Amino acid sequence: MTGKNTLLWAAIAPIAFLLITVGAVLVFGGSDMVATYSWAILLLASLVGLAIGFFITRASDRHLRRGLLRSMRQTLPAVPMLFLIGSVSATWMLSGVVPLLIDQGLHLIDPKMFLIITCVVCAIISVLTGSSWTTIATIGVAFMGIGGMLGYSPGWIAGAIISGAYFGDKVSPLSDTTVLASSSCGVDLFSHIRYMLLTTIPSILIALAVFGTVGFSIDITSAAAESKMTEALRHTFNLNPWIYVIPLLTLILIALRINTLITLAVSSLLGLAGVFIFQPQILGQIHPGAGDHLWPSIIAGFKMIGTSTHLATGNPALDDLVETGGMAGMSPTVGLVLSAMLFGGVMMGTSVLNIITSRFTSLLRNRISTVGATVTSGLFLNAATADQYLSLIIGGNIYKTLYRQQGLEGRLLSRTLEDSVSVTSVLIPWNSCGVTQSSVLGVATIAYLPCCVFNYVSPLMSLLMAVLAQRGAKILALRPINS
Predict the structure, then answer these.
(1) What's the pLDDT tens digit per position in 437-456?
(2) Rounded to two decimals, what is the model's pTM?
(3) How many CB atoms lie within 10 A of CB 231?
(4) Between residues 265 and 221, which one has the greater pLDDT?
(5) How high does pLDDT run on average in the chain?
(6) pLDDT of residue 163
(7) How many CA atoms lie within 13 A of 191 on its CB side?
(8) Which own/partner contact pairs does 172-177 have at CB distance under 8 Å and 24+ positions apart?
């Protein structure tokens, strides 16, 4: 028994090291330092995992290679997507797409209702596209600009964007994670979505109530300050209604289910063309002589896509907003994703995950404890593998047989995994989702975490539903049967 306990504590060590180190850096250096050094912390935790694997769990080289390859297969496809998201963000800003949406939003949106509208719009677009990442990288960036001008804190704006985008993603039949969660548990897709509404609808209603309360309780930027910002926008950009063609064509590509990488690449090229067509005056700021001569214009185009750009708008707040990073700006994010990939591969390849989960599941006896363990495992797997896809697959494999043995529905497992894995992945600073959305929105994960109401209420709602279901079953069992 002592040997088993020693093995369990050794298996927990890499995760404990990771969490304790992140906590210490957060306390002594703040959220910005966590974002800056997360890659180094992940690499150190990977070394701890390797040491545990070689000297305590006695993992073979073959198992380690298998774990690393599995992690690579799930993670590496995200790398070109990240670079393209950086390119789309830059070209949509400089072509006037985001400035136009900001300008229109400032005139059409009731400032007090901004967080609610942001959440609802992001939810609708995410349902239609099936992609929280695409929603956040496009309309989400525009809402960040609008909210900042209205006086909302970046954390609350990002929280409303992410809450809406992830709600829409979870209930959309076009979502890859929704399809993966249902298929890995052997559940019909639409049965899975209908069952998931029992937790997602109350969760999003709670989130909207919180966002409404926040909106009506904070001070909004004065009309004079807002007017100065819109003047600076219109002075810097030609806000031509034809610019709407760029996001409209992108939405058409998404609706046609064109490959995500192709959609992002075409969207980036549309944005680049939009700069030359609608914003020729900006080319000269990016590279001298651009707009008048071919070669300088080509150089300016490469600069827009590949590197950071700075525009002088005459308004310091707006200068920060329209600054872009391009593909180069996503390099730190890619480095962090690769570090997370290595950590997840080590955790699987050294059998550390198997040791922890097998010991954990052996203690489960009823619906509440099983759902509670699934939620806890979802959070743990998100932290351990740093990837929501791996977490969904591993979680489904771990619990599928156990749910069947206990007479629990497969759709209960698929729903609980969605509520605890897909939805919470964006809340973990080193998870690929947390890394990406933090970089795209320009807000540290730790800063927006308390404001992503839907994302942390969802797993709690899963637990509440399990408690209510078990108590309801007990009441029915105790009720006398009339003959």
Answers:
(1) 998 898 989 999 999 999 99
(2) 0.71
(3) 14
(4) 265
(5) 82
(6) 97
(7) 12
(8) 172/126, 172/127, 172/128, 172/129, 172/130, 173/130, 174/128, 174/129, 174/130, 174/131, 174/257, 175/130, 175/131, 175/132, 176/130, 176/131, 177/388, 177/389, 177/392, 177/418, 177/422
Please give the C-alpha separations between residue 77 and each of 73, 114, 234, 334, 341, in angstroms, as whole numbers: 7, 35, 39, 11, 11
> Which tops the pLDDT comparison, 317 or 399?
399
**Residue that is written with structure tokens 């004065």 in the block:** 222
How many CB atoms are closer than 10 A to CB 88? 28
User: Residue 99: what residue type?
Assistant: P
